[in-house]
């Protein structure tokens, strides 16, 4: 049994981001159903509910919402070293990344869990905390199966490696779905340019593109034509919002090498609400998911294996000409097609519905 988890922690004097704890994502009351009553001694058990999944989740990132009811923040002076996560089967320490630590607010830690068994509600890891934890932060180890993981934190860095970091252009930051997010005021040149972009979506035969997005449109009449949130050039382009009838529509255009294999799957998110959007491609099918639920499939012509067009242009989140109005958070890009179970569990995780914190 193995594991990859994400932790959301609250309440100490160590602040990695400076963001307000109560401004992003989905609010979770202190002492909600994910918390077992018990003493705050180290270690604590992080138990995962994978009962809805027919597959084991390998190398999986999980969000764990921790409050003062589930951890003693007074003994965590530096979370980069005063936290440690243990695989109980092997006794080994798991790589983790502290995305944000906010005094008396929500702090976010990601932990790589090698495996969560299918159909299980009993798999768990142990969280050790305090001066004797002797942990070592390792963000690259957490995100080893991804090319890009951008939390849209202060440095717009790529947690998955040393390349593909972000360069903000006329951008601000504010509360995201988890911690900080990128804020787009709408119109003009606003965005985050991902550096060293040549390899991204360049002739790929598989991929997963996932992100949280918030279209800040109180009235659909304010949605400009092609309000852009993402563009790569030819393989992936025209990521945009537009209006169809009485609905806000989100669409990304994908272009492949075969004849008649341009893909225009779209979803209809609720305005002024966070939506978890995922596009996957397994070589034969493009699938679109919204908030963990399948929302469209395109099968390549003839059911033949395909790949994206060759494309070495820049990858841009936002637009140099007509940026959408809203926010984005947790952008992830990988050269693997994630499964429906993975995506469903990932949505449950990032909405705090996957983990229970209790006594060991």
Please provide a brief summary of the model.
Helices cover 5% and strands 39% of the residues. By secondary structure, the chain is mainly β. It has two domains: 5-144 and 345-358, no CATH class; 148-335, Sandwich (Jelly Rolls), CATH 2.60.120.
Describe the structure.
By secondary structure, the chain is mostly beta strands. Helices cover 5% and strands 39% of the residues. It is built from three helices and 25 strands. The strands form four sheets. Strands 9, 11, 12, 14, 20, 21, 22 and 24 form an eight-stranded antiparallel sheet that branches. A hairpin with a 4-residue loop joins strand 15 and strand 16.
What is the tally of helical segments? 3
State the total count of DSSP E strands.
Answer: 25
SSE string, helix = H, strand = E? EEEEHEEEEHEEEEEEEEEEEEEEEEHE
In percent, how much strand structure appears in the residues? 35-45%
Number of domains: 2
Largest sheet: 8 strands, antiparallel
- Do you know the CATH topology of the largest domain? Jelly Rolls
Task: Report, as a whole number of angstroms, the end-to-end distance.
Answer: 17 Å
- Give the proportion of residues in helices: under 10%
Global outline = globular
Average residue-wise pLDDT: 87
Radius of gyration: 20 Å
Q: Low-confidence parts lasting 5 or more residues at pLDDT below 50?
A: 6-33
**CATH class call of the largest domain:** Mainly Beta
- CATH arch. level architecture of the largest domain: Sandwich
Structural class: mainly beta
């Amino acid at each position: 049994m193995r594991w990859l988890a994400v932790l959301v922690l609250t309440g100490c004097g160590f602040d990695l981001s400076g963001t307000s704890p109560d401004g992003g994502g989905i609010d979770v009351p202190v002492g909600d159903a994910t918390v077992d009553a018990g003493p705050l001694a180290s270690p604590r058990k992080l138990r995962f509910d994978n009962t809805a999944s027919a597959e084991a989740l390998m190398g999986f990132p999980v969000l764990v919402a921790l409050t003062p009811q589930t951890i003693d923040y007074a003994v965590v002076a530096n979370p980069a070293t005063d936290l440690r996560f243990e695989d109980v089967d092997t006794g080994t320490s798991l790589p983790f990344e502290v995305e944000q630590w906010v005094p008396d607010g929500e702090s976010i830690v990601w932990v790589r869990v090698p495996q969560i068994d299918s159909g299980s509600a009993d798999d768990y890891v142990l969280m050790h905390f305090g001066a004797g934890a002797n942990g070592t932060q390792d963000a690259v180890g957490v995100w080893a199966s991804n090319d890009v993981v951008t939390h849209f934190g202060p440095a717009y860095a790529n947690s998955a490696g040393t390349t593909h970091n972000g360069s903000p252009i006329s951008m601000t930051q504010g509360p995201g779905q988890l911690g900080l997010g990128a804020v787009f005021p709408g119109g003009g040149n606003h965005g985050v340019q991902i550096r060293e972009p040549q390899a991204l979506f360049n002739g790929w035969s598989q991929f997963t593109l996932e992100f949280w997005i918030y279209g800040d449109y109180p009235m659909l009449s304010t949605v400009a034509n092609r309000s852009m949130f993402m563009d790569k050039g030819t393989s992936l382009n025209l990521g945009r919002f537009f209006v169809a009838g009485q609905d806000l529509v989100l669409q990304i255009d994908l272009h492949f090498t075969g004849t008649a294999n341009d893909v225009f799957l779209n979803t209809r998110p609720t305005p002024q609400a966070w939506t978890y959007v995922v596009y996957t491609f397994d070589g034969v099918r493009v699938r679109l998911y919204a908030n963990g639920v399948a929302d469209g499939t395109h099968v390549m012509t003839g059911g033949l294996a395909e790949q994206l067009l060759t494309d070495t242009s820049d990858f841009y989140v936002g637009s140099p000409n007509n940026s959408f109005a809203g926010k984005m958070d947790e952008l992830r890009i990988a050269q693997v097609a994630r499964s429906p179970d993975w995506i469903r569990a990932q949505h449950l995780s990032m909405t705090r519905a996957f983990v229970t914190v209790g006594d060991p």
